[in-house]
Amino acid sequence: MYLLSVLALLLSAAPGWAQPQTQRLSPRELEQVFELVPLSQPVFLTHAGDGSGRVFVVEQPGRIKVIDANSATDATFLDLRNRVNNGPGEAGLLGLAFHPSYALNGRLFVSYTFGDLTSRISEFHVSGDPDSADVASEQVLLEVAQPAGNHNGGQIDFGPDGMLYVSFGDGGASNDRFGNGQNLTTLLAAILRLDVDRRDDELAYAIPPDNPFAGNDEGWREEIWAWGLRNPWRFSFDRTTGQLWVGDVG
User: Fold this and answer.
1) Which of 20, 69, 201, 223 has its CA at a distance of 20 to 30 angstroms from the CA of residue 169?
2) Computed from CA positions of residues 124, 128, 132, 134, in that sequence, does the dihedral angle turn out positive or negative?
3) For 195-207, how does the pLDDT look when each residue is reduced to its tens digit (9 = 90+)?
4) Do 188 and 143 meet the contact criterion of CB atoms below 8 Å apart?
5) What are the contacts of 51-60 at 24+ separation with CB within 8 A?
6) Beta bridge partners of residue 164, listed in sequence order
7) Lowest-pLDDT range, 8-17, 38-47, 61-70, 216-225?
8) What pLDDT is recorded for position 73?
9) What is the mean pLDDT of residues 78-105?
10) Which residues pair with 167 in a beta bridge?
11) What is the mean pLDDT of residues 121-145?
12) Is the distance from CB of 180 to CB of 171 less than 8 angstroms?
């Protein structure tokens, strides 16, 4: 201890040694922006990018709520509880993404599980009421059967390139039991990259020509952009670099 004390004194007296300065932070005040809103199992929060100041909260049982800070009100934006299977702990309504031109075209996309346990990516449109989506406007983009109740992924988001990125886990259970991690013939264990502004053949979307396996003749899924993932539950694009950061929670 004595040697450490002497060393600290010598360093503090050495030329160029900067003593740490204590900075005083200016006072901060907290202001409540949103009213208290009752929520049921919220799993995701986002905005529509339309400058309205509203936020949208995804509830796992199958409902999306819209909260307006300006008018201090909240409403049900989309209710899919009669379609969603949220029985297993990691199933339910899991993702929401608004089209980059949502303010003009009113298009939004969701990820949820339904039936015996199938993941579905669907498109909806806003109704005449800006605080309500048209539940009857659903157009299914793709579906993937899940062999187990966990590792459903569920994040969807538009990248800086305007493509829709979609995550699926490896099918669940333990130790990649189904061998999907390195199986390029399945959409499980992967992040997909889709062009939802065009359509290819009988698909409800188009394959971007610069996807890694676009045009392959090996039977590999051309939608795949990244693979070998356990359960990419959430991801986000860096607004400065465009890099994709993935929370692979499995």
Assistant:
1) 201
2) negative
3) 999 999 999 999 9
4) no
5) 51/103, 52/130, 54/131, 56/96, 58/93, 58/94, 58/95, 58/96, 59/93, 60/86, 60/92, 60/93, 60/94
6) 158, 194
7) 8-17
8) 74
9) 97
10) 191
11) 97
12) yes
Cα separation values, 183 from 73, 192, 208, 230, Å: 47, 14, 20, 12
**Residue carrying structure tokens 């796992």:** 60
Domains, in order of start, for the chain: 37-241 (2.120.10.30)
Which of 54, 48, 131, 41 lies closest to 87, judged by CA?
Answer: 41
Yes or no: say if 235 and 244 are a contact pair by the CB < 8 Å rule.
yes
Tokens of 12: 């503090």
Q: How far is CA 216 from CA 141, 209, 210, 212, 224, in A?
A: 22, 11, 12, 9, 12
Q: Which residues contact 121 (CB under 8 A, 6 or more apart)?
A: 109, 110, 111, 140, 141, 142, 143, 156, 166
Q: Tokens at residue 166, please?
A: 């979609």
